[in-house]
Specification:
54% helix; 98 residues; mainly alpha
Length: 98
């Protein structure tokens, strides 16, 4: 699968569009075929805490790894997204996955 509309909204940092897609029932956890990124991992990569929070509130899975095995929490740590790391921990991300 290529990019979904929700993944692209997260990539573009468009929280309003992401929220509209979430409300319309977009699948929160579909992966891109070439990277394994979900909308959550894209929002983390872009450093967009509002979209991250919207996806978490809607029930996005917090521990889905990408194709190289990185979970959203590991991605946030690598990108230096301290506020997002705290959000993921508060939401229940698994701290022991590698």
């Amino acid at each position: 699968m290529g990019n979904t509309a929700l993944v692209m909204a997260a990539y573009d940092g468009s929280t309003a569009i992401a929220k509209a897609l979430i409300k319309a029932g977009a699948n929160l956890d579909l992966h891109q075929s070439f990277s394994g990124a979900t909308a959550l991992t894209m929002a983390i990569w872009k450093g967009d805490p509002a979209t991250v929070k919207a996806l978490i509130k809607a029930g996005a899975k917090l521990n889905l790894p990408n194709i190289v095995g990185r979970t959203p929490l590991i991605g946030a740590v690598i990108e230096g997204r301290t506020a997002i790391v705290k959000t993921l921990i508060k939401a229940g991300a698994n701290l022991d996955l590698q």
